[in-house]
Amino acid sequence: MSTLSDVAAVAGVSKATASRALNGRGLVAPETAGRVLAAAARLGFVPNRAARELARGRSGIIAIVVPTLDNTFFTPIIAGAQARAEEAGFQLTVAVHGPDAPGAFARLASQVDGFLVVAPRGSDTLVVGTSAAKPAVLVDREIDGMTSVVADTAAAFGTLTTWLATKGHERIVYVGGPEGSWQDRQRTAAVQDAARRAGAELTVLGPCPATFAAGVEVTAAVVETGATAVVPYATSIGIGLLLALGTRGVEVPRDLVVSTEPRVIEALGLEHTPAIDVDGEELGRTAMDLLARQLDGQDEPGRQVRLAVPVRG
């Protein structure tokens, strides 16, 4: 059976260079990498990824931790992270935990190389403490000193509120997200500021879990406000609202505008409906890329990335 040393000898390079060329990490000249790959193919050499990672003191596994699977916003984030993890040679595993479960994080830490912690709730101290055992990247939340990537939805929600006011909507409702959500605090503040500047009357409802059922349940309160536009925290809340409004005979968007995302507008054939277009897959890919760079020593912890979020009117 051929070994890495055999491949290096045939390719005329050092064992370290052959290893870098085969695992795709580190700088190797294209011509050199080509010779190494050709030698490996000729010898029938297949890198033992598990052995390679163990030799580096790693498992090759990354945990992406989400607070719930009820919120469909997390689905493309997981997909994007998984695609980038595979490119970087890692296996991604999904875990559902909140930062108030430090025991779960501690058990995971003994099995994985790092964490992608998505939209964690709780205090900064709690999140930092539970994520400290291994390199970690926050997704959709920012804490000083921790690497993070967020979709700048707060700015988008503010822009959307301003747009609604310029279209003549004098009463607007914001249906808030889960209690303790960092993003909900950011979005609430942005919506309130935009409404104040535009001279619109704003009603904030919630907190609400980011679920279809929550949208259905909050519908009566929305109707009672007499608002002509609604900005829900999450798409799932908005879909619940749309269904419940229909059963009440409220025509959308003629009687009440409910902002959502482009795929919902297309699926339901809604016209003249504003949308916030978050690229969840890009969010996940960026988070995984930041973590891979940390693990390879290319980045120090603390880098914060914000991705722009377009608003479509």
TrEMBL record:
<dbReference type="InterPro" id="IPR010982">
    <property type="entry name" value="Lambda_DNA-bd_dom_sf"/>
</dbReference>
<protein>
    <submittedName>
        <fullName>LacI family DNA-binding transcriptional regulator</fullName>
    </submittedName>
</protein>
<dbReference type="Pfam" id="PF13377">
    <property type="entry name" value="Peripla_BP_3"/>
</dbReference>
<feature type="domain" description="HTH lacI-type">
    <location>
        <begin position="2"/>
        <end position="56"/>
    </location>
</feature>
<keyword id="KW-0805">Transcription regulation</keyword>
<dbReference type="GO" id="GO:0003677">
    <property type="term" value="F:DNA binding"/>
</dbReference>
<keyword id="KW-0238">DNA-binding</keyword>
<dbReference type="InterPro" id="IPR000843">
    <property type="entry name" value="HTH_LacI"/>
</dbReference>
<dbReference type="Pfam" id="PF00356">
    <property type="entry name" value="LacI"/>
</dbReference>
<dbReference type="InterPro" id="IPR028082">
    <property type="entry name" value="Peripla_BP_I"/>
</dbReference>
<keyword id="KW-0804">Transcription</keyword>
<keyword id="KW-0678">Repressor</keyword>
<dbReference type="InterPro" id="IPR046335">
    <property type="entry name" value="LacI/GalR-like_sensor"/>
</dbReference>
